[in-house]
Amino acid sequence: MQTGPAEGTPTSRSDPLLKEDAVVRLDSVRKRFGGERHGVVALRGVTLGLERNRFTAIMGPSGSGKSTLLQLAAGLDRPTSGSVVLDGEDLSRLGEVALTRLRRERIGFVFQAFNLLPALTVEQNVALPLRLAGRRPRRAEVQSVLERVGLAARGRHRPAELSGGEQQRVAIARALITAPAVIFADEPTGALDTGTAEEILRRLRGAVETEGQTVVVVTHDPTAASHAERVVFLVDGRLAGELRRPSAAAVAEQMAGFGAWAEPARAPDAEGSA
Ligand code: ADP
Ligand code: MG
Predict the structure, then answer these.
(1) Counting ligands in written order, which one lies closest to the CA of residue 60?
(2) Mutate to test the pocket of ligand 1, among 31, 32, 33 (most ligand atoms within 8 A of CB)
(3) Residue 155, Cα to own-chain centre: how many angstroms?
(4) For all residues of the chain together, what is the average pLDDT?
(5) pLDDT per position as a tens digit, 141-162
(6) By C-alpha distance, which of 233, 146, 224 is closest to 192?
(7) Which ligand is nearest to the CA of 35?
(8) How many Cα atoms occupy the beta-carbon half-sphere of 7 within 13 Å?
(9) 3-state secondary structure of 231
(10) β-strands 89-90, 107-111 pairing
């Protein structure tokens, strides 16, 4: 899309974070959990645009605020201050009902623990977002997303009959079925072995490259992050730089520079010893 900007105006090529390219924009986002005195500040003023039709990875040490950032970007939680605009909607202006609808219809989620409903078949799990949106899913559309993740033959099975990697592919199919504006994934490969993790990342990247999806993945794994077109680093609740199309080695080096591997002193995630 060439718009021919006035002279001196930065083009989207020179500034990929211009508003029109960002499917999600966070502006001066702060997040505190708990009270003034004993609370934890998880985000200390983050301003960031997440680009449409791209695969972005958010990286950082444990406890750096990655999951919090994702939750706020996805409208699962609200910032203490600052704003989040998703697909043109200022989330702070939306009431709970509208926010719930936006999450259902315009956002897909993939979690570390897959979060499939064990009593439902694979087909039923994948169709669930459409049912929740009040639509009657067509068999063909469910079958089509299952084909896209290589599970066309497993629709009648229950999650427990599938491997971890297959369950995560079902979760990806479930995220894809509404053709959301963004798919958010928090440590989607955290429970998988290396080979399986690799396949999941290829599938997510494929959704960006061949289907024009937008995918934002939180990870602390440099290999996972190296699949991304852009890697944004978060340290102690603040942005700490970014890399474009980095190798896994470059990501690991950056993380080592933050002392990320030298200090595994914190609990691995929000739930833990703290
Ligand atoms: P990451 O995903 O990078 O490991 P998180 O976003 O989960 O980090 O957490 C950032 C900080 O906020 C941590 O210190 C964590 O303990 C704290 N935190 C996260 N969620 C909560 C919560 N619900 N209540 C209190 N503290 C929280
Ligand atoms: Mg986390």
Answers:
(1) 1
(2) 33
(3) 25
(4) 88
(5) 999 999 999 999 999 999 999 9
(6) 224
(7) 1
(8) 0
(9) strand
(10) unpaired
Residue 206 pairs in a beta bridge with none
d(CA 162, CA 253): 36
Distance CA 220, CA 39 (A): 24
Number of residues in the chain: 274
Q: Which amino acid is at 59?
A: M
What is the band of 220 on the pLDDT scale with cuts at 50, 70, 90? confident
Q: Which domains does the chain have, with CATH numbers?
A: 53-75+101-257 (3.40.50.300)
* Interval between CA 62 and ligand 1 midpoint (Å): 9
Token pair, residue 20, equals 């029109």
CA distances from 182 to 34, 46, 96, 104 (A): 29, 19, 19, 11
**CA separation for the pair 99, 89 (Å, rounded):** 10
* Side-by-side strand order, sheet with 81-86: 40-51, 22-33, 81-86, 89-90
Nearest CA to ligand 1 atom 19: 270
For residue 269, the CA-to-ligand 1 centroid distance in Å is 7
Find the ligand nearest to 58 CA: 1
- Ligand 1, closest atom to CA 61? 3
> Which atom in ligand 1 lies closest to the alpha carbon of residue 34?
25
